[in-house]
Write a structure and sequence with these properties.
Elements: H1 3-21, H2 23-29, E1 36-40, E2 46-50, E3 56-58, H3 61-70, E4 76-80, H4 87-92, E5 100-103, H5 110-114, E6 121-124, H6 126-129, H7 132-139, E7 145-147, H8 153-167, H9 170-191, E8 201-206, E9 211-212, H10 218-226, E10 229-230, E11 239-241, E12 245-247, H11 250-256, E13 260-264, H12 266-273, H13 282-285, E14 289-291, H14 307-318, H15 328-340, H16 346-354
Parallel strand pairs: 3-4, 3-6, 4-5, 6-7, 8-10, 8-13, 13-14
Antiparallel strand pairs: 1-2, 9-12, 11-12
Helix pairs in contact: 3-8, 8-9, 9-14, 10-14, 15-16
Length: 369
């Protein structure tokens, strides 16, 4: 059976059994009540939560980025460890470091979660809410849980709207989504007419040299909008690890020989420079290997909130003749000022666009070979 279909069946049966056992509780929780709202999360689950909660457990790093961008960083009382490695994020919002760290790589710190002030809602990713052992620990607290994730551009905008609804920040969410749609329209209006045979071939490395885009993910979707041929999908189905990692072999990468490579992680770029066998790649010979910019998040990462900037930057990098009027330094400054209320210095902009310095990436360029 296809791995993806198998995973979907497994998720379905887990959810069916889990929620069947909680049916009575769920029905009671969804009783309309003044001061509460009912939302539908990524998994399709309806959740009743306090309207505009005062204390939020943001146990998915991207949720912290969004909530802070909306103006609610002070409400975040619990975070995942990943947020502490988001260096620019911590520069803009140093108060995030006062939040309790309740989740590491694969563990929950229940003692920290139990401290006051206790979150009135937990925002998690599917990897946690579909982990039965973790959910057994969290169920003891009776805190409403909202699962978020997104697999494409449209779904990302829906999740941004959902988080705006939870925090009463609908206007902020609408402003972000309007900017997002305008960038997509700008880029697609200029790249949509590029003939198939003239589209540049591109390889996107995610944290490791051989880890690349998986089908039905945000990074696959936004790269399609740029009007390139993603070489991750030009051959046979790739090996998948878990539900969100996909790999090429070194031989496949060399055979597909992309014209451009966009790299998520400076260590990967360093590995390419130090590996003579990779210097025959067309992208290397022609000087077309680029680090994706790195700000609050790595632009274009599967859960980046700077996806609009990733789309524009990649389009200008690969098709510069179509975007001569786009100034990425100005665009970057405007984005952070408009959405984070933060004025970047010229040196900070240069650091962001260099793709280095604002986050520690676990792993190395050699991983996966």
């Amino acid at each position: 059976m296809n791995k993806k279909i198998f995973v979907l069946f497994a998720v379905f049966f887990f959810l069916a059994s889990f929620w069947a056992g909680c049916a009575k509780k769920t029905a009671a929780d969804l009783t309309p009540e003044e001061g509460y709202i009912i939302v539908t999360d990524y998994l399709g689950k309806k959740v009743k939560i306090k309207e505009n909660p005062d204390y939020i457990g943001s146990i998915f790093a991207v949720a912290s980025h969004v909530l802070a961008m909306y103006g609610d960083v002070e409400k975040i009382v619990a975070i995942s460890e990943g947020n502490t490695r988001d260096y620019l994020f911590c520069e803009i919002y140093p108060q995030i470091l006062r939040a309790r760290i309740v989740k590491g790589s694969n563990t929950l710190n229940i003692e920290e979660l139990a401290k006051q002030p206790r979150p009135e809602v937990l925002i998690l990713n599917p990897e946690v809410t579909l982990d039965e052992s973790m959910m057994k620990q969290l169920d003891k607290f009776g805190i409403p849980i909202v699962t978020i994730a997104y697999d494409n551009v449209e779904q990302q905008q829906q999740i941004m709207e959902l988080l705006g609804t939870i925090t009463g920040r609908e206007k902020e969410a609408a402003a972000y989504n309007e900017y997002y749609r305008n960038i997509v329209e700008l880029v697609t209006s200029r790249t949509a007419e590029i003939p198939e045979g003239e589209r540049k071939t591109v390889y996107h490395a995610i944290n490791e040299l051989l880890r690349t885009d998986q089908a039905d993910t945000l990074s696959e979707d936004w790269l399609n909008l740029v009007g390139v041929e993603n070489v991750a999908f030009s051959g046979e189905e790739r090996e998948s690890i878990g539900t969100n990692k996909s790999y090429l072999s070194l031989e496949e990468l060399l055979q597909r020989n992309p014209e451009y490579m966009i790299i998520n992680g400076g260590d990967v770029l360093d590995y390419i420079e130090a590996s003579p066998q990779l210097h025959n790649l067309k992208a290397y010979r022609e000087g077309n290997i680029y680090l994706l910019p790195l700000g609050v998040s790595r632009w274009g990462h599967p859960y980046s909130i700077e996806t609009p900037l990733a789309i524009l930057w990649t389009a200008k990098t690969i098709y510069p003749e179509l975007f001569t009027d786009v100034d990425m330094e100005k665009e970057t400054k405007d984005f952070y000022l408009n959405f984070f209320d933060y004025e970047l210095s010229d040196s900070q902009v240069a650091k962001i666009l260099s793709g280095r310095g604002y986050k520690d990436i676990k792993g190395s360029g050699e991983s996966g070979i």
